Amino acid sequence: MNTKKKTGLHIDGDKLVLIAAIIVVFALFTSLNKNFLSITNMINILIAASLVGLVAVGHTYLIIAGQNDLSPGSLAAFSGVVAALLVSKGMPFLAAIVITIFCGAAVGYFNAFMVNKIHLEAFIATLVTQSIIRGFAYIICGGKPVSISNKTFLLIGKARILNIPVSVWIMIICIVVFGIVLAKTKFGRSVYAIGGSMDAARLAGLNPKRIITTCYVMMGILCSIGGIIFAARMNSGQPAANVNLEFDAITAVILGGVSFVGGVGNMGGTILGIILIQSFNTGLTMVNVPSFWQYVAKGGLLLFALTTDYIRKQKREKDLLAASMKNL
Amino acid sequence: MSSMLEFQNICKYFPGVKALDNISFKAYAGEVLAFLGENGAGKSTLLKVLNGDYQPTSGKYLLDGVEKHFQSPHQAIEEGISVIYQERQILLELSVAENIYLGRMPVNRFGFIDTQKANQMASRIIEDFGLPISPSTKVKDLSIAYQQMVEIMKAYSRENLKVICFDEPTASLSDSEIEALFKIIGKLKKEGKIIIYVSHRMEEIQRITDKVAIFKDGHYVTTVKTGEVPESEMIRMMVGRDLGDIYKNLDRNKEIGDVLLEVKDVSSDYVKKNSFVLRKGEVLGFSGLVGAGRTELMRAIIGADSLRSGEVILEGKKIQNRSPHEAMEHGIVLVPEDRKLQGILSNLDISDNINISMLDRNSNGLGFVDAKKEAKIAEEGIRNFKIKTPSAKKKIVELSGGNQQKCIVARWISTNPKVLILDEPTKGIDVGAKSEFYQMICEFAKQGLGVILISSELPEVMGLSDRIIVMRARQIVGEISGDEATESTLLSMGMIGEVKKA
Fold first, then answer.
1. Could you tell me which of A289, B75, B147, B203 has the fewest CB atoms within 10 Å of its CB?
2. What is the CA radius of gyration of chain B?
3. What is the pLDDT of residue A320?
């Protein structure tokens, strides 16, 4: 693997398919609604993508490490409510977000605890968290949205730098930073190693449990940041928000070439996956597809993602095993 | 009609490798034909071409004069060609009978599976084979040897079975289990099957095969009658050089130093209390049957399993290894037995595999990995250990088993260890690469490392070790010097635990 391949900034066959899919989605929705290709709509897509994007960054790490997380939607909603509550009780904004992010990290740690110590499957462990945290999101605010009046808080949802909203900048920075960490650092390499074989990585002197814990804690933090941004955009912390957030994020990541077998994928693919899923989702709304049908369409997209994952896996194995005359 | 299998000009190319180059020869019914060759010589590839796992790049194969072209192993089985692999291909949760008749279980007139009938049919075969197992036993409850027997019975249960191939079937069997396998091979032979037997073990080839087909670097060299050509001559044909007595010609380390490692009363959930010492520059062999607890003792020492009692003293200082990482920091490293699952990282390339234990040392304060340092270490590893690859950027799974193992050794040597533990380092590795490993081991000892060599191959432990410790039933039962050890003393110590100090 050379560096380019690790960051995923090279264009290979898989990426071309993805880019082609993005072009098809853009062409389709533009033909149905001219406004789809407008700058305003592009920025809207990015804004909507910012939350999914942050979660997808976390999923990229977790799924490469052979893990998964179903709790981000609940955790993002919970974080929005916590931050809104703390601020409404008069806590300074900065202190409120630090505490909220700390809570997110703690939830991530709890996920890791269940996986590492109780040896639960990631899928089931995080399903537990999904329910518990959603419950607490309702409990702490008595089931009602908590409105936000703090100016600084609201600014996160509205301020723009170079005409790009702050929330989008935060997503871009996270993608770049975490992309570099994944590709270039000791930690990134360890994530790939434990995704390849946990046993072999441990015997090679790595500490798989600690790496897994770090990934979950990272995911918790990213969800909290996402939840805070979302609440700022909505002017309130809403306990019912962000349902199925993980669904979109996982779809994006799998579309981007991260595989459930573990140890495979990169951040470059995730970027394309995020673009594809969010333009797809926004497009569906713009051309007035009824929301019930949107569920069906999203399921279809996930099925498409999983099918491409399967085909890629076959291809990887084939590339490895099958004959090729070209070097002879 | 007695059957015949013929290969005509079979070629199989992989990226950068001619795995099979123009292979032509015949195999006849009622004969056991050995495939002999180094790893990567093409034996397994040829089997995979034969059973439809691979498609040949060119050439063809004929069964009874009819050209065949199998698209999948399943199709090959349907037409009477079965390959029994080292890795079991059976379903552990199913019963013996269900495995034998998998996909073609007898049904009653309502279309339901008739388990009773399947069991009856299966017990007939089991009786034929003379095995003490019940058709309704779940396969997971059987020993590895019997699991393999189930696979053989599965192949045998097809009435049209003509060709049965064994790919290193004895790699994980004990001696008595090997005997049982040989009996069955004899039976198949009498029934006029074509039997192909791939193995690296010369004694086995001498014992049960009629002819030996020799392969070298993807070429078919020749077929000789077993027993007519001396072993050394066959080895010369397969490696292109005379290995002679590889153990005698080894340049062993003669200067054994002070005590390096002292293990005192170490026990874990998997081994009883054990104590031993290892000296600088010494090769300490560990002999015993499979399951005697040798691997488990080493795992306890390096902290892969937690210690229940005892202490580990390195260079006079008590150390604590709570994880393999800590053991590595102290300079004790282990090359595990199960290369595929515990050794290599199959998703990563050669360079990453060699450097994985050096991540701490190869990265700066911010955690960024120094690509140049990594490239240098990988290059050194490839050069020093003669790893056969065009580039360090190749995926490790593209290499042959022996070369993968060299990468794992390179990984550990780059960390500059004091104690190197090798667990069955030459398992499934061809004779040529084995002798390279032996020289390497002697070289490590000369450099002052303490080497612990776990091996189930008696000539190997005896030929390389300065002292040999024998384990039985999770406990050390004796120790003997390498010069005094004979196969029979080691065996009797390992099997009955008799401490025969000469």
1. B203
2. 24
3. 67
